[in-house]
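ingest -> validate -> predict -> emit
validate: passed (alphabet ok, no gaps, 199 aa)
predict: started
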Amino acid sequence: MSVLSALPVFKPVASPGHQRRHTLPASEFRSLTPEDAISVFEIEREAFILVSGECPLHLDEVRHFLSVCAELSLGWFEEGRLVAFIIGSLWDQEKLSTEALTLHKPQGTTVHIHVLAVHRTFRQQGKGSILMWRYLQYLRSLPYVRRAVLMCEDFLVPFYQKLGFNVQGPSEVTVGPLTFIEMQYAVRGHAFVRRYSGC
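emit:
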């Protein structure tokens, strides 16, 4: 018999009144992949069809953006389940146009945020604000991104203003009878423009 096997085994004993800590469900934030496309589309469809009757992105467009610019997406997963997401792509013009809805311009310095959606059972908990804040902080780490733009309906303008977006005016883009307001968030200031303008 070895000396080690002869020693008694000590197990930690919980002190009286010591309780196990309550922990929140495991959360993960990560870029989305094409494999996430169906979950993304299901959340998006449920979130937008009831409100506006239109989805910002169709399933094939979700797959496209998650294939060509997945690094501009962010998903919030709780216990492995997608609960909220953002999908963006690069754009190279000052204003959004109909082309911006389906194109990714790799040389662009503007992130077009196509969609922010939260699963219905997780709404009204601040998850949309938290996810957008994290996304905007992430964009600051990308040296080629100067600003983020989005278009939204009038009733969402205060939500985005609280996150730091500024109204740019009516969007040139319409979808059926829907009109939108274009909003902008400055990721980089004038120093960035001077540094990368060749001046």
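The CA atoms of residues 30 and 170 lie 32 Å apart.
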